[in-house]
Amino acid sequence: MSNQLKYEKILDALQELLVNKKLQTISVSEIAQTAGMGKGSIYYYFPSKDAIFEALIQRNYQKPLETAKNLAAQTDISPFTRMAMIFQACTFSSSEFLRRSDPVPADAQEKSFIHHKYMNHLISELKPALTEIIRQGIENHDILFDHPAALAEIVLIVLTVKLDNTLVPSTPEEIEETLRGLISLLEKGTGTPSGALNYLTI
Known about the structure:
Radius of gyration: 19 Å
Oligomer: single chain
């Protein structure tokens, strides 16, 4: 069995265990047993259970992050269209990851840990690509704003909190209202034509 296949089997094992168990109760030995390998093999690839979980999050978001990086280079496509495509991929991956990886049952502390890891990874990894897309929009006068990195971070924080919906639990109507408010602020603050940012409601 190749090293990459063993690596993936370890992640698959933790994903499988999370369906019915709390993360804090899962041991490295259980992960090894579920993966069909010795405990020592786990430590060859990962220094800890937390490292396995972080790698699992990274794997779940690999496709949207690759999409974001590829789109940042496609200057022939409108920046708003590219952002829409990123967030469509992000929304799908978020719902799938949270559906599969939320332990059942989970206490508040564990949920907070899991969702913190998810939000931190998504914001930090998507920010460079989104910043570049916004910078290109500014350069082409599609977006009127002087701080592309700050704008990217603001948008990602609001979207991630609302996609996750655990930090400030909201009804679908409240989420829609918040996103519409963000759209309105962005349109007025960046001179963007009305309707160009409707992708944020996806």
